[in-house]
Amino acid sequence: MTRVSGIPTSRAANFIKFQRDPLGFLVDALPMGDVVSLRTSSFRPTFVVNSPDFIQEILVHQEQHFRKGRSSGVLRRTIGDGLLTSEHSVHRQQKKYLTPVFYKERIQTYAQIVQEETERLADSLEDGVPVPMHEVMMQLTLGIIARSLFKTELDADKAELAAAVDVTIRQTAGTIFSPIIIPFAIPTPGNVKHKRAIRTLEAMIYEAISKGKRDPDAYADSMLGLLLDTKDESGNALSDQEIRDQMMTMLLAGHETTANALVWAWYCLERAPGARQRLHEELDVIRLNEESSGGERLSAYDRYREMSFTKQIVQETLRLYPPAWAILRESEQELVMLGDHFPKNSSFLISPYAIHRNDSVFGDAGVFRPERFDGGVSQWARFAYFPFGGGSRGCIGSQFALLEAGIIMGSLAEKFHFTSTSGQGEAEPEPLVSLRVKNGRWMVPERRQNQKSSEKMKSQSLE
């Protein structure tokens, strides 16, 4: 018996609805069946995949029969042939030489950088003065990526580089789901703006490559140093172009996604006072334990290991608002999955955003409830919860992303809680390349009372 069902609406109606509200379209398709045919062309049929076991077939068991296809072609305009866009043997080779970037011992070193950059941000925030949270988180995570992976201090360039990333993300998102892809060589206003943004990012990257070649010892423990030391299968050093592509990939995929997730986390906590209180209590216990042990602060990595509820907040945010809200695959041959036949060039649309909202799996799936992760992720089917994708193309930096988000949340929430400024209404998701809060979010950092008391005591002791 087939597990493929047809969508009841017409092809034209589906196209219009998806263009207007892709997230709503995918959530509405969730109860329609395990695999939902959108009744498109018989030569290039399109399916929405809702069942975890079918997703596992596509991303793991039969992944060798699929390509990323159209999405990679569009992303390649910006990041070139990096890990995110390469296919098959090239992807396997790139993943092999990039994996050491995220070894545990390196992540422990990155943790300290995350802590330092976040504390610098905390020192710059003024009690009661609103900030554009999306821009603040973007600049913070951009600085972290530049320092941890490229050993580059951005300082005054953060705002300009973050703006360039924003342009590339918006232009790319506008193209991926467009029915017509205008060639990049045509000087439309969008293409001109996009290329200018790429040049801005490349200037930083090529300067870092040049410095790394002049002083390799100074970059030895960074991703850049690793790339400069890497040899291909013929024993040749990687070209500057390939190094540029990998750095551009990490720059775009490695910071914008985390920044978006953090904005959603602050927003969700504002609307879940119980969860926010539990977060503050956890952080206060860690701080008090440090003080009772002689006042010596734990290392950033050891502190992160103590933040069990903070981690659950990050996991729950990624459930409700996964940055990678859609995964696209195209079949390279006719194939059979779980008894159903699919023709060559079939397109499959997988949405973690929709699948994470399955009430039959999560119960109150639309509610922000971090404690649901008390039992870990193994309580659900493998692809019922998968914010970082899966298979060989799963996010290589997932552990770093979780650590980064956790340390940032812990460091800022220890000192502040954040409240949205009035007049903004409910936050709406904006599905670009990753899932943003539409129009950003202005929030007010309000210093916690225990922090105010602590600062007052320090001031009196200095007097």
From TrEMBL:
Keyword field: Heme, Iron, Metal-binding, Monooxygenase, Oxidoreductase
Gene3D superfamilies: Cytochrome P450
Entry-linked SUPFAM superfamilies: Cytochrome P450
Matches recorded under InterPro entries: Cyt_P450, Cyt_P450_CS, Cyt_P450_E_grp-I, Cyt_P450_sf, Cytochrome_P450_Monoox
Residue ranges, compositional bias (Basic and acidic residues): 444-463
Residue ranges, annotated region (Disordered): 440-463
Family under the similarity heading: Belongs to the cytochrome P450 family.
The protein's name: Cytochrome P450
